[in-house]
Design a protein that fits this description.
Blueprint: H1 5-9, E1 17-20, E2 31-34, E3 48-52, H2 62-74, E4 79-83, H3 93-102, E5 106-109, H4 115-164, E6 167-171, E7 177-181, H5 185-190, H6 193-200, E8 207-211, E9 221-227, E10 235-241, H7 247-286, H8 290-301, E11 309-315, H9 320-327, H10 335-343, H11 346-361, E12 366-370, E13 373-379, H12 383-397, E14 414-417, H13 426-443, E15 447-449, H14 450-455, H15 465-483, H16 489-498, H17 503-510, H18 514-528, H19 535-547
Parallel strand pairs: 2-3, 3-4, 4-5, 14-15
Antiparallel strand pairs: 1-5, 6-7, 6-10, 8-9, 9-10, 11-13, 11-14, 12-13
Helix pairs in contact: 2-3, 4-7, 7-8, 10-11, 11-12, 15-19, 16-17, 16-18, 17-18
């Protein structure tokens, strides 16, 4: 502990006597300072023991002493030492009364005790306290290192919590709690998720303080520190204590930050190596070599290949970063979606979300970045697939009202999921994921599952410029004919096709005689140069009519 007024009073060599403020002797002394100025306050920093002989003071003037002592107390001076036998034979009563009134400890310094002795005592006590703190810090560092090597991050957190007499928690890249010590700190750590997310938005290294005196958690002061050496934090550390950490505790916290950063960076190197193995496994699966893929996967990804998995393919165009910043913050976003917006790297954010979810559930997941594309193998029905859906839902929810993307817009993340498959069908699963991804981009969706394609309609797939151009070209001659007012060939064709070529039913729908309808269909064949007896022609004409059904051309409306 640092020196206090009480420790100086109990110092046998100093012979100090307390004249006022006996109940405030337990305050720490930052330094002992000698000043005979009438107003030394401008030169005080707070926490000093001021030593005087009253050379330039009228120490017997009560009003002058009240003003003097009041200014010292207001400046944070913790005590006043008055030397007797120099200018005054005893401590003046006016000074004693003023110190008692302000509650400022007043110490009588005997003639035989030089101020230098008091300064040396304070300096020696401060040096001893710092030495104890450094020694304790090195001991804590050794213990934290031992725990990190033998018990991993969990053991390190337990040792850190014991060193600071509080609690500690580790968060992953998305702000989710990974480990806490002691166990009861899990709920407290979970309440800090929003603070951790804000910390992640700042370049590493970054730190912040939450709670403390006057805050919502008055009995709990929490320090948050980002971990990692890159631009984006890889994790975060929370340390909760009842008060601000002392020097020894500060050494322990800094040692924990350094060790966890090393663990994080080492994990990142291992992660890169695992990704290279994953890429090799994926290539073998797509090449139709599941046995070789299983041999290479080993214990790392072997579990993933033993059960049905989903193939996930995600893409993001280079313009996605600019758009994320141009659109500004969006409501109702989750942590992963906020990360994508903040960093402008949606593929990285998606990869982090899937890997973090898989790590928390203890399942294997294969993530392979390929430039502007991300390929993932994840267990069917597992946490990673759920995290993918949640990530996409958060991005969808963050769009402005009515803000579906235009078909073909490459400015955002799009994701395609295959149906469940096994190693033998990996190539088919990859194709399914690509097909779902293509549909997602056409429909302006963030994510589409391949199983949704068969459950929906083929008509939304017609919303493509090339399809519309084909439809317009195929039906242009009929539109031009109808525009002259010589007949409703387009409406008649639509009615006839919708009735599967049944003349009476189609004629009834149009309100014309069936012979009139037969004549119109012959005119359609003459104008188009195609036979309506050909099923392929009927199919093309029906799709062309559907593709142009929203247009406001002359032939788009059916008249009775």
């Amino acid at each position: 502990m640092p020196p206090t007024l009480a420790s100086l009073v109990h110092h046998s060599a100093l012979k100090l006597t307390v004249r006022a403020g006996e109940d405030r002797l337990d305050v720490p002394v930052r330094w002992a300072h000698v000043s005979e100025l009438a107003d030394p306050v401008p030169y005080m920093e707070g926490g000093e023991l001021l030593l005087i002989t009253a050379l330039k003071l009228d120490a017997e003037d009560p009003e002058a002493m009240r003003r003097y002592v009041r200014r010292l107390a207001g400046a944070g001076v913790v005590g006043l030492g008055f030397a007797v036998g120099v200018n005054y034979d005893e401590v003046p009563a006016a000074l004693v009364d003023a110190a008692a009134q302000e509650g400022l400890p007043l110490l009588e310094v005997p003639r035989r005790t030089p101020f230098l002795a008091i300064s040396k005592a304070v300096s020696a006590a401060i040096a001893a306290d710092q030495y104890r703190a450094v020694t304790a810090g090195f001991a804590a560092q050794r213990e934290l290192t031992r725990q990190a090597l033998t018990a991993g991050p969990e053991g390190l957190l337990a040792a850190l919590a014991q060193q600071v007499d509080g609690w500690a928690a580790l968060y992953d890249a998305l702000g989710a709690v990974v480990a806490t010590a002691p166990e009861w700190a899990g709920r407290r750590a979970a309440r800090l998720t929003a603070e951790v997310e804000r910390l992640r938005e700042r370049p590493a290294p970054a730190s912040s303080v939450v709670g403390g005196p006057g805050g919502p958690d008055a009995d709990d002061r929490v320090e948050l520190h980002s971990l990692g050496t890159g631009r984006r934090p890889r994790a975060a550390l929370a340390v909760g204590t009842a008060a601000a950490p002392g020097t020894a505790e500060r050494y322990a916290v800094h040692s924990a930050i350094a060790l966890l950063t090393l663990i994080t960076e080492r994990s990142r190197s291992l992660h890169a190596a695992e990704q290279r193995i994953g890429a090799a496994v994926l290539r073998m699966l797509l090449a139709g070599e599941p046995d070789h893929a299983r041999a290479v996967a080993g214990d790392l990804y072997g579990e993933l290949l033993d059960a049905p998995f989903r193939m996930i393919v995600a893409e993001a165009a280079p313009g996605s970063a600019a758009r994320a910043h141009a659109d500004g913050p969006a409501p109702a976003r989750g942590a992963a979606a906020k990360s994508a917006e903040a960093t402008g790297a949606p593929l990285d954010a998606l990869a982090e979300a899937l890997e973090a979810a898989a790590a928390r559930s203890g399942e294997a997941v294969l993530v392979v970045p390929e430039g502007e594309r991300l390929v993932v193998l994840a267990p069917d029905g597992g946490a990673a697939v759920t995290a993918c859906a949640d990530f996409a839902a958060a991005l969808e929810a963050g769009r402005p009202a009515g803000g579906a993307r235009e078909a073909g817009d490459d400015g955002e993340l799009v994701v395609g999921l295959s149906a469940p498959a096994g190693p033998i069908a990996a190539a088919s699963a990859y194709k399914q994921a690509e097909q779902a991804l293509s549909v997602a981009r056409r429909r302006g969706r963030v994510c589409v599952e391949h199983e949704q394609l068969a459950a929906g309609s083929v008509l939304p797939l017609l919303a493509d410029d090339a399809v519309r151009a084909f439809a317009d070209g195929l039906l242009r001659a009929l539109y031009e004919h109808d525009a002259t007012g010589r007949g409703d060939l387009v409406a008649s064709l639509r009615a006839w096709l919708s009735r599967h070529g049944q003349w009476d039913a189609a004629a009834a729908d149009l309100g014309v005689h069936r012979h009139t309808l037969r004549y119109r269909m012959r005119r359609v064949e003459e104008i188009l140069g195609r036979s309506l007896d050909d099923p392929d022609v009927r199919m093309e004409l029906w799709l062309a009519l559907k593709a142009t059904s929203s247009d406001q051309g002359p032939g788009a409306h059916t008249r009775p």
